[in-house]
Specification:
The complex is a heterotrimer. Chain A is an alpha/beta fold. Chain A has 14 helices and 12 strands. The chains are: A alpha/beta, B mainly alpha, C mainly alpha. Chains in contact: A-C, B-C.
């Protein structure tokens, strides 16, 4: 288990801010009637039990129960399938918007929505967000690829193999990053691995020499490799800062972001369609990596109470301490920060998404996009 | 119909399946098509061989029965099962199971009323209990009765 | 290492923890007996309770359950001829014929004794291998994994008995059905008719239940026979246990094989019992009786599939790579307990890891003993008249099938596969190869694609690939050589 000293310092600011907001919020709603009166709140998790999203929300269950007004019990329903699209579809189609049914999503749910996969029936822009847990992504390589820092990707001395899963899921961000940096043609991308765990194993076996992992997974699984010298971090995908630009991943302050790498490689600042698309995806996907939602037309009192519970949860020391592993050192978003992230999603330019669709169709032979 | 006729029909259906699958597979993207395509082709070829053998095999007078069941029996019980599934679709798992048990046990296996009622109750309790304890789900039905 | 082991043992033997092991065992037995429910169901039952427990107790509960599922799932395999879970498929080949002869007591007795030994051997090998676990798991790259799936598929020949061509066709058909759903290499959905249910492919439980259970139940009713065709029970558990003792080398070999195959990340669980069965059939003398009630055909897969639980823990604990749905949830449970799978399991968390090993061994013992106790009572199911018992079985099957994805599609597919299975049964098409092909279709395609993408054709020259290839060649060749093609198809 890795205890991350630096993230504790990171947490002070958001905790203080959220605490202030909570005080304000509870002041405003001082005479609220509780919406939840002892019935169970269901969290539909569109993944099978045991995965990252499932584990995170199972961890959150009891804290939310404790801190949400009315103290409802939270119950988990796993509906895996279709890369999480099936479960999310089921939520919007079959589950009643009565305030007692919530949906947990992950990047794999968000991205098919953004790139317009035909099978997607849900619209995240309509739903009411409760809490979001950000997560970054880091790309790393093995020492014998000859790549010592990211700029070397422009001129690799060895063949580079990157393990990926599918050009319609979470890998889309990686594809965009490589396009922005213009190094895509130097890398052989091998699709078909069964997920990040499998590509990580392939990396360790030496089958691939380039890989990327989500921030929490990187902390737990790759940092030990880096320490023993069998992995070299290259860059992080970064986060969307307040000014709309890519900033370094706060959990990995020493790893350069894609933007800095671009500047080192090409001189000027990045721009263009690919870059716009990349920023959009980072903002939405990294900022809201795992999110809890309520139906668009669910009663707003339910949303308010749940959000109160969420704010109190992240202020709970025990939650943050005990969740060091599942949270990966990132602070969950609630309140106005969450709003900001959701707005970024709602305000996404349609033409950018259109560009991404065409890009995927042309470069990666993807079909089935609206 | 004789067993041989069934065999031939089955083999013919299989061949059609393989051929259809091969044609479908050819329309997939390159990387996704190799596997099903070659399997279907290989399967179709081998299956043709079997079909020919079946046709040439001496006509078997053995009817479709083993020890004592005849075609009527099979159809009878398949109908019972089908009825059960339809019931599930209409009224939901618990109600359908109780109905199924009632009719089957009383009329088909001629059990006593007591036994039937006890079974129905027990099964209903177990179904409901397990669904809560183990988070089991039951099929959605048109007219939900005793929805869990 | 030894001191840590003893330390861990002391922790495990704490009475309060033993209670939890027993609790886990009992839940595991219930989950294992009911066909269609598998590890994931049991796990999701336990997960809500784990939160807040100390890691040792929590693991006692979880591992207690996991260890026993593959012991208890022998009940439906032997008594009804339905694979209780993916690990118990091969047992139906000889277990069910034995039950039909009235020998279910013997089959179950042998199976449980074999499971007990297998589980202990698995735990033991796990213990020895843990220090070198990392390099072992890492040596299974995509080419090796492809060869392993191919090895599993080659068992099809072994299982076809007297109709090898039909067996191969069945295997191909199974593989074809296995391709329904998302393709591993590209984002293409195959054979789905735009029906969203099929996007995920056909679930194994639905397939296995439909293929074996439905036809069996219809036939039992229509032929008015009890499962035990003689209407009596004659075999005894003691005889079964004696069989295991007299076949001890087979038990040990199969257990070792099972554990080793369990190491194979991601794949081990689904092929272990078939490979063990196939290898037993090939390497033992006088195996014509296999498939008709040879007790060794029960012993081999049963020892292997309990032993593999030990093996699958290596990639799970050391790498966080689950080998099956059950181990995936196990990982989730670990995280809820505050434990991170990975290199720390060998260093800071070593006592926990070792306690897992002990729990595995203990749970296997408890589970097997409990099952042995229950054998006589549960065997009586096989002499109950079909029209009394089949309705209840049908209800259980439907519930089990539906748990796969909780869509109506489960039941629809269940019925369709049931019809196909029924036809195959009566027209003398072997169904076991269908199951094998189905289970291994996607893995073999995936790993073949990955191997080709990464290495071109070079992967074929790797020594490990060649050695596994030779094994496959021998198995297939001996199958063809010793099995003459029938001149007449038995109509």
């Amino acid at each position: 288990m890795i205890k991350n000293q630096s993230f504790k310092k990171l947490m002070v600011a958001p905790v203080v801010i959220s605490g202030a907001m909570a005080t304000v919020a509870s002041g405003v709603n001082a005479d609220d009637h509780n919406f939840f009166s002892d019935e169970n709140v269901e969290i539909l998790i569109p993944f099978s039990a045991g995965g990252g999203t499932d584990t995170l929300f199972r961890y959150m269950q009891s804290y939310m129960s404790e801190h949400t007004p009315g103290n409802p019990t939270f119950q988990i329903l796993n509906v895996p399938g279709g890369g999480s699209v099936l479960g999310a579809n089921e939520y919007v189609i079959l589950k009643e918007p009565n305030g007692y049914n919530t949906l947990a999503t992950s990047a794999s749910t968000t991205i098919p929505f953004m790139i317009g996969q035909e099978s997607v029936e849900y619209d995240l822009r309509d739903m009411q967000p409760i809490i979001g847990v950000p997560n970054g992504v880091v790309m790393y390589t093995s020492p014998d690829s000859g790549i010592e820092e990211a700029t070397d990707l422009q001129n690799p001395s060895e063949e580079l193999f990157l393990g990926a899963t599918s050009p319609t899921g979470i890998d889309v961000m990686t594809l965009l990053a490589l396009e922005v940096l213009d190094v895509k043609d130097n890398i052989e991308i091998i699709f078909g691995y069964e997920g990040a765990g499998a590509s990580r194993t392939a990396f360790m076996q030496g089958e691939t020499n380039l890989d990327y992992q989500s921030g929490s997974s990187y902390q737990n699984n790759v940092t030990p490799l880096v320490e023993e010298g069998s992995a070299v971090p290259l860059f992080s995908y970064g986060f969307l800062g307040e000014d709309g630009d890519i900033v370094r991943d706060p959990a990995f302050p020493e790893i350069p972001s894609v933007k800095e790498v671009y500047v080192d490689m090409h001189g000027g600042e990045p721009s263009g369609k690919a870059w716009d698309a990349y920023k959009v995806f980072v903002g939405v996907v990294n900022g809201l990596h795992k999110t809890l939602w309520l139906h668009a037309d669910a009663p707003s009192e339910a949303a308010e109470d749940l959000r109160e519970g969420a704010i109190a949860t992240i202020n709970d020391e025990a939650f943050i301490e005990g969740g060091a592993d599942v949270l990966g050192g990132y602070t969950p978003l609630v309140g106005s920060e969450l709003e900001a992230a959701i707005n970024a999603l709602a305000e996404v330019d349609e033409s950018t998404l259109e560009w991404v669709r065409t890009y995927l169709e042309e470069e990666y032979d993807v079909t089935g996009l609206k | 119909m004789t067993l041989k006729a069934y065999s031939v029909i089955f083999a013919a259906l299989l061949i059609s399946l393989f051929i259809w699958a091969a044609v479908e597979a050819a329309s997939f993207q390159r990387l996704a098509s190799y596997f099903p395509l070659y399997i279907s082709i290989f399967g179709a070829i081998l299956n043709t061989y079997i079909l020919i053998l079946e046709l040439k095999a001496r006509s078997n007078s053995k009817e479709l029965n083993e020890t004592s069941g005849g075609p009527k029996e099979y159809i009878l019980y398949m109908s019972w099962f089908t009825g059960y599934f339809v019931a599930i679709y209409l009224v939901g798992m618990v109600a359908a199971s109780m109905l199924f048990l009632f009719f089957f046990l009383r009329y088909e296996s001629k059990q006593s009323l007591l036994f039937t009622i006890i079974s129905m109750t027990l099964v209903a309790l177990l179904l409901i209990g397990f669904s809560h304890m183990m988070n089991l789900n039951y099929p959605k039905s048109l007219f939900p009765i005793l929805e869990i | 290492m030894i001191e840590s082991a003893i330390e861990a043992l002391v922790i495990v033997l704490d009475p309060s923890r033993i209670v939890f092991i027993l609790l886990g065992v009992m839940i595991g037995i219930v989950v294992g007996i009911l066909p269609g429910l598998g590890g994931p169901v049991g796990m999701s039952m336990l997960l809500p309770f784990i939160f807040g427990m100390d890691p040792y107790t929590g693991m006692a509960l979880l591992i207690g359950m996991v260890a026993v599922i593959h012991t208890a799932d022998t009940f439906p395999s032997v008594l009804i001829g339905v694979p209780g879970s993916s690990g118990s498929q091969a047992t139906i080949m000889d277990g069910y014929p034995l039950a039909k002869k009235g020998d279910s007591g013997r089959a179950l007795g042998a199976a449980f004794a074999a499971s007990l030994v297998g589980g202990i051997v698995g735990a033991f090998i796990l213990f020895i291998v843990i220090p070198v676990g990392r390099p072992i798991v890492l040596s299974f790259g995509s080419p090796e994994l492809f060869m392993m799936s191919l090895l599993g598929i080659s068992m099809v020949g072994v299982l076809s008995g007297k109709a090898p061509i039909k067996g191969i066709i069945a295997g191909l058909l199974g593989m074809l059905i296995g391709t329904v759903g998302g393709a591993p290499a590209v984002a293409e959905y195959r054979f789905t008719f735009d029906w969203i249910y099929l996007y995920r492919g056909i679930p194994l439980a639905v397939f296995a239940l439909g293929l074996f259970a439905l036809p069996e139940m219809i036939d039992l009713l229509a032929q008015r026979r009890t499962i035990s065709s003689t209407g009596t029970l004659k075999g005894s558990r003691i005889k079964g246990i004696k069989d295991v003792i007299s076949n001890k080398w087979l038990v040990l070999r199969s257990s070792a094989l099972g554990t080793l195959i369990g190491f194979v990340p991601g794949l081990g669980g689904s092929v272990v019992d078939w490979i063990s069965y196939g290898v037993a059939k090939k390497t033992l003398k006088n195996t014509e009786g296999f498939g008709h009630g040879d007790i060794r055909g029960v012993i081999a897969p049963e020892s292997a599939n309990n032993a593999k639980e030990g093996g699958t823990l290596i990639p799970t604990l050391l790498f966080g790579i689950p080998g099956s749905g059950t181990t995936a949830i196990l990982l989730g449970g670990l995280i809820l307990l505050g434990v991170q799978a990975g290199p720390s399991m060998l260093t800071t968390d070593l006592p926990l890891t070792l306690s897992i090993v002990w729990t595995l061994a203990l749970a296997n013992i408890f589970g097997a003993l409990l099952c042995l106790l229950l054998t006589n009572q549960i065997s009586k199911l096989s002499i109950i008249k079909p029209d009394k018992i089949v309705p209840f079985l049908l209800i259980i099957m439907v519930v089990g099938a539906y748990q796969s994805t909780r869509h109506w599609g489960d039941l629809i597919v269940f019925i369709i596969i049931g019809l196909v299975g029924w036809s195959m049964k009566h027209l003398d098409w072997p169904r076991a190869p269908l199951l094998v092909g189905f289970v291994l279709a996607l893995s073999s395609e995936r790993y073949l694609h990955l191997s080709m993408s990464r290495y071109g054709y070079e992967w074929m020259y790797q020594p490990t690939v060649i050695s596994i290839g030779l094994v496959i060649f021998f198995i297939v060749a001996s199958g063809l050589f010793f099995n003459r093609r029938p001149k007449k198809i038995e109509g």
